């Protein structure tokens, strides 16, 4: 059953603007698979960001695509590159992705899909983390919710402060390059959040697969805003 926030977003889908100045339903967009089912990941050295970038390029080229999308509730193997997620081998693996990734060139503008206030921001600079991160706060009807944008550039992020207003359609950030984006191949992590739970500038982007239902209710499908046929 959809969460109340998911139902709200579905009712207002026609009101949202783009998050990126590209058509995410265009023929040059493809889904990228980062699960264990993808044989190209078996021997890939994902801790080497250059090698990871080459892998993304090969995955796109195989589908004659320039932009890759996907990842919501995908059980991924790529997070084993991140010591912040796999520091303790005795803990359940956090590998269930709670957002959508859009893999595209660094420097691509990031737009506010609806009017917002800057809730918080931070440079989560650990290897394999979000890098520069912005969280926007929105209100629809009587409901407050949040959108998170990870792997940005430091330059634009430094111009923002909590409490600043951002109008729908405004460019407020750019997709960042490695290593400042958390040392990833360039992409935007976009996530919807119902409750920040007191957090500032950061929020889990992956969860343990066994906790799928509770995290899916807290972080509904980003495609309710992105509205791509490939998601």
List the defining traits of the structure above.
Peptidoglycan DD-metalloendopeptidase family protein; eight-stranded mixed β-sheet; 231 residues; Dup_hybrid_motif; alpha+beta; M23ase_b-sheet_dom; globular; Cell_wall_metabolism_enzyme
Protein topology:
Layout (H helix, E strand, L loop, with lengths): L3 H8 L17 E3 L17 H14 L4 E4 L25 E2 L2 E4 L5 E3 L4 E9 L6 E10 L2 E8 L3 H4 L7 E2 L4 E4 L12 E7 L12 E2 L4 H7 L4 H4 L5
Parallel strand pairs: 1-2
Antiparallel strand pairs: 2-4, 3-12, 4-11, 5-10, 6-7, 6-9, 7-8, 8-11
Would you give an account of this structure?
This protein has helices at residues 4-11, 49-62, 154-157, 212-218, 223-226; strands spanning 29-31, 67-70, 96-97, 100-103, 109-111, 116-124, 131-140, 143-150, 165-166, 171-174, 187-193, 206-207. With 231 residues, it is an alpha+beta fold. An eight-stranded mixed β-sheet has the order 1-2-4-11-8-7-6-9. A two-stranded antiparallel sheet has the order 3-12. A two-stranded antiparallel sheet has the order 5-10. It is globular, with a radius of gyration of 17 Å. Residues 96-194 form the M23ase beta-sheet core domain.
Strand content: 25-35%
Intertermini distance: 19 Å
Structural class: alpha+beta
- The average pLDDT score comes to 91
What is the number of helical segments per DSSP (H or I, 4+ residues)?
A: 5
Radius of gyration: 17 Å
Question: Fraction of residues in helices?
Answer: 10-25%
**Largest sheet properties:** 8 strands, mixed
Please tell me what the overall shape is. Answer: globular
Count the beta strands: 12
* Poorly predicted spans: 84-88
Pfam family, one: Peptidase_M23
Protein name: Peptidoglycan DD-metalloendopeptidase family protein
Organism: Hymenobacter defluvii
Domain M23ase beta-sheet core: 96-194
């Amino acid at each position: 059953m959809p969460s109340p926030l998911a139902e709200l977003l579905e009712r207002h889908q026609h009101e949202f603007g783009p998050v990126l100045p590209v058509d995410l339903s265009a023929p040059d967009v493809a889904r990228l698979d980062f699960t264990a089912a993808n044989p190209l990941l078996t021997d890939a050295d994902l801790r080497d960001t250059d090698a990871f970038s080459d892998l993304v390029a090969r995955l796109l080229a195989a589908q004659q695509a320039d932009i890759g999308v996907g990842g919501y509730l995908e059980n991924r193997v790529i997070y084993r590159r991140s010591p912040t997620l796999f520091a303790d081998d005795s803990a359940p693996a956090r590998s269930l992705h709670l957002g959508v990734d859009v893999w595209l060139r660094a420097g691509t503008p990031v737009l506010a899909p609806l009017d917002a206030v800057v809730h918080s921001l931070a440079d989560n600079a650990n290897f394999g983390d979000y890098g520069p991160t912005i969280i926007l706060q929105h209100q629809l009807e009587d409901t407050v919710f949040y959108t998170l944008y990870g792997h940005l550039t430091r330059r634009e992020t430094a111009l923002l402060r909590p409490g600043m207003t951002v109008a729908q359609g405004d460019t407020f950030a750019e997709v960042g390059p490695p290593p400042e984006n958390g040392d990833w191949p360039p992409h935007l992590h976009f996530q919807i959040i119902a409750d920040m739970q007191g957090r500032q500038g950061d929020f889990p982007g992956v969860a343990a697969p066994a906790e799928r239902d509770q995290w899916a209710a807290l972080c509904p499908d980003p495609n309710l805003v992105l509205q791509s046929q490939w998601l």
